[in-house]
Design brief:
The chain has helices at 7-31, 36-59, 70-100. It is mainly α.
Length: 106
């Protein structure tokens, strides 16, 4: 779910969040190394919370009742979760691959 229909405005709105998210992830990954598979699964869980729950929950404020439909949750858990993993792999896998090549800090 995009923040705005205009791509440039969407990037201006979302990029600070993604930069902060990636920076935080690198700091955490530097302290405690997680495997690639664990990182991908955690990325999928994060995305279910961000786009799967928070977005539709905020939609309730504007009269969108999608989150109350049980079929929505079936779709999220059976299909969307796996797509979320693919989407977020581009954000979380490069730091994992780079940091796995460096020595673990003491």
């Amino acid at each position: 779910m995009a923040a705005h229909s205009n791509l440039l405005i969407d990037l201006i709105i979302t990029m600070p969040w993604y930069i902060l998210l990636a920076r935080s992830f690198v700091k955490i990954q530097n302290r405690q190394r997680f495997s690639k598979s664990k990182v991908l699964l955690l990325g999928g869980i994060y995305e279910i919370g961000a786009d799967g729950f928070a977005g539709p929950f905020l939609g309730l404020l504007w009269g969108d009742y999608l989150i109350l439909n049980p079929f929505y949750w079936i779709l999220i858990m059976t299909i969307s979760f796996w797509q979320f993993i693919l989407v977020y792999s581009s954000l979380v896998l490069p730091p994992v691959l780079i940091l796995n090549e460096t020595p673990t800090p003491p």
